[in-house]
């Protein structure tokens, strides 16, 4: 953590990662592979997980 990092900068970075993910440096390689090779399945899975875990 750096004093130069403000809450607004952290939130902006999170928004950037959510809108433009980097599949070449993934946290979960299987998800990155799906993102790169099966975009419709990736979108379907992302919607389902969002519904389940973020919206109850």
TrEMBL record:
Residues 1-19 form the signal peptide. Gene3D superfamilies: Ubiquitin Conjugating Enzyme. PANTHER family: UBIQUITIN-CONJUGATING ENZYME E2 (PTHR24068). InterPro entries: UBC (IPR000608), UBQ-conjugating_enzyme/RWD (IPR016135). This is UBC core domain-containing protein. Pfam families: UQ_con. Residues 1-55 form the UBC core domain. It comes from the Eukaryota. Keywords: Signal.
């Amino acid at each position: 953590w750096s004093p130069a990092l403000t809450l607004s900068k952290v939130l902006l970075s999170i928004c950037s990662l959510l809108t433009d993910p980097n599949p070449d440096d993934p946290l979960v390689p299987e998800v990155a592979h799906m993102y790169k090779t099966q975009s419709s399945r990736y979108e379907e899975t992302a919607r389902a997980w969002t519904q389940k875990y973020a919206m109850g």
